[in-house]
Design brief:
The chain is an alpha/beta fold. The protein folds into 4 domains: 89 residues, no CATH class; 147 residues, P-loop containing nucleotide triphosphate hydrolases (Rossmann fold); 61 residues; 83 residues, Arc Repressor Mutant, subunit A (Orthogonal Bundle), CATH 1.10.10.10. Helices cover 49% and strands 10% of the residues. It has 20 helices and 10 strands. The strands form 3 sheets. A 5-stranded parallel sheet has the order 4-5-6-3-7, with helices on both faces. Helix 17 packs across helix 19, helix 17 packs across helix 20 and helix 18 packs across helix 19. The longest helix has 22 residues.
Amino acid sequence: MRRLQQLGGTTRAANGDEVDALPRSTVSTILRGDKLPRSEFVSAFVTACLVYGGQPPEKVAEATERWLAHWRALYATGATEGAEGRPARDAPLAEEPKRWSVPRHLPLGAPFLAGRAAELDVAEQLFRRQSGGGVFLVTGSVGVGKSAFAVRWAHSLIDDFPDGQLYVDLRGPHGPLDSQQALGVLLGSLGVHEDDCPKDPWRRVERYRSLIAGRRMLVVLDNACDAEQVRPLLATGEHCRTVVTSRNRMSGLVAREAAQRLVLEVLSSEAACAVLSAVIDEAHLVEARAELEELAELCGYLPLVLRLAAVKFTDRPGQGFKSFVRSMRDGGQLLSLALDGDTGSSIQDELEFSYRRLGLDAKRFFRKIGLVDETGFTLEAGAALAGIPLAEADRLTAQLESEHLVAEVGGRRFTMPRVLQAFARAMERNAGEARTLMLA
């Protein structure tokens, strides 16, 4: 037993202390009991026994995974997982076995999703063509409606995933979640108490994957920053699917995990006007079609900006719709769009989140190209504005493209929506004021 204890190595207790993975008292209790041991114990015990028996590493790994598969099958049937060190005979005789509670964690779907019927059809076709486990990436610029689209799509797939749907907002209430924090949320959704979450990062990944293996589950990872954040969270079961939303194109996820990428473009003018008309009473839009189309254009045909603008007008309709549209021609008014008391409903905050993720060179380049007019810029013009070599302008433009802060419109010409341009100009003014203060 002492040798097995040595071969079992160490693990982290709930309080963070490093302890033996196979304490002799625990081994004795579990082997005499009738409760299902924890998966960490199974892994450590089987590994120690096989290593003690002189098995090669590949055989050890294969056999350990086989025993863990048996453990997962028992856990899925509702077998009670006992606390290590607690004799089974001490458990109440009337204790009910743990039941699998199907998680249904998708947020409320948007009741109105204008102009996305074609994209939903494409997403459905991608899903039906995908065999085995699959990853789907919904990407696009800030405010283009990625989350609303993904949630609406996920709700349409509920019947395909009877074992549950998991959802995590990777932005988090206090900043982006790292992979380990997100895994804690997912494990909690699967019924694992916070104190029972493995402390070791890889064991946490293994626990997550073990619990969903063999089940038909959908995992939605919303507002992801990059592929590194997402990879440990991907559902790897054969009958599971993962939907990821991100402003980043995540080319690495497409290349390495064969993710199916769906890019959401800005709405058409007609769809954008429909978004505005769904919020603003038609009485205010009489003989104001031109102003309605102008407001849609000022908002960059972005659903988030459109809804914020529409709600802002309905909060104070006495000013008149035409007067309101004239005020929105000021870029500062566009950037001020927000809902009082509703965090996460500010276009300024959304843009700042993307801006903070850029490197110093990319930030400076973004500010400079915001000075061009609405027709956009060429790489040569961008290089001249920023005072950098053409190759550097090409590299930085590619970075901004990856984050959907600029878009190519043909002929190696690039542009950005009006609201992003207003933001870039505001950042350039702030940077100029900071330089002035430093020189004063």
